[in-house]
Amino acid sequence: MDAVRAGPFGQLFRPDNFVFGQSGAGNNWAKGHYTEGAELVDQVLDVVRREAEGCDCLQGFQITHSLGGGTGAGMGTLLISKIREEFPDRMMATFSVVPSPKVSDTVVEPYNATLSVHQLVENSDETFCIDNEALYDICIRTLKLSNPSYGDLNHLVSAVMSGVSTSLRFPGQLNSDLRKLAVNMVPFPRLHFFMVGFAPLTSRGSHSFRAVSVPELTQQMFDPKNMMAASDFRNGRYLTCSAIL
User: Fold this and answer.
1) Which residue intervals define the domain Tubulin/FtsZ GTPase in the entry (predicted)?
2) How much is the pTM?
């Protein structure tokens, strides 16, 4: 948090919107959801209320969190459920970093993720699934980075978030707000978990220009190597799909 405040983006945030805790959840979902996180969630909700009250037309909320640890999974889903209680008619979109099949930090990641998915099924309207293994693979295989840093991974995540929210920020006919995106993309209310493909992929600081045709872009978008989750979608079927250009 201090690094964010002191960094180049620190001026984007109001100083009193930072909420600090004295201890972490120790990769324990229950601590994040019921004890440590529950002690902080009211302070966080005060910040959310203050920002929501300053909006003329509040569309909804976008939450970024991890499902593998204790704080992002446990407290993150608690916050989502509390926001849902307070703003039941607003949209809830989450960018959730799911545990990877091969890249794993802790042995309890599957448990934390399983407990979190139940909460997301009930309380989220749109969940964009991202995992670190897919991001590492993109950095190494596609972007040819020998030793990817978290900054490189975050660059990819930020590109995805920017792309998904493009139609919210610029004029357009399709998916022009969070609710319309859900109407077009969610066939059943509980079935709202999306895989994100992105093209063209570029590394941080890359300024080289390359002309790419529409067929090439389309091919890249549906290439498993360009997916932000390490799941081969060719094993399943498309229920819905949206290309945001």
Assistant:
1) 1-172
2) 0.90
